[in-house]
Design brief:
three-stranded antiparallel β-sheet, binds zinc ion, mainly alpha, elongated, about 45% helix
Length: about 140
């Protein structure tokens, strides 16, 4: 059995929705929402690459941003240093969450990776945080 070429598109199974017989691609995550390098999934360090069909690769990018924002917001809640300490980043993240919520509301997306209620819940939390006076 021939190994697939890393980075190339081949016919296999989507790691998100499980679709087979479709063109799938390895998702390169590059930089995260806050502009930091995404070491974990850089080609050399990526020990278990994931492959996604067209629709899921779109959703994967949305999920990446959602997880970045969720992680930073959790740090903020614990009083740790967070990328969301800055008001402009908080606003940017809040807008991005609304965008993600709107994008996954489209029925064409499989929503194998993201849950709409989780996205909207986090969007509301960020809005609340923005409205609250900083202490
Ligand atoms: Zn898929």
């Amino acid at each position: 059995m021939e190994e697939p070429h890393i980075g190339a598109s081949f016919a296999g199974r989507c790691d998100a929705c499980g679709a087979t017989g479709v063109s799938i691609m390895k998702v390169s995550l590059g930089r995260d929402f806050f502009g930091r390098a995404y070491d974990r999934l850089s080609p050399n360090a990526d020990l278990s690459p994931k492959w996604y069909c067209d629709r899921c690769s779109v959703e994967k990018n949305l999920q990446r941003d959602f997880r970045d924002i969720k992680g930073e917001f959790a740090k903020l809640g614990k009083g740790e240093t967070s990328a969301l300490d800055q008001a402009d980043q908080l606003q940017r993240a809040s807008l991005r969450l609304k965008e993600i919520a709107a994008l996954i509301a489209v029925p064409a997306l499989t929503q194998a990776l993201l849950k709409a209620d989780e996205v909207s819940a986090l969007a509301r939390s960020l809005e609340t945080r923005r409205a609250a006076p900083t202490t």
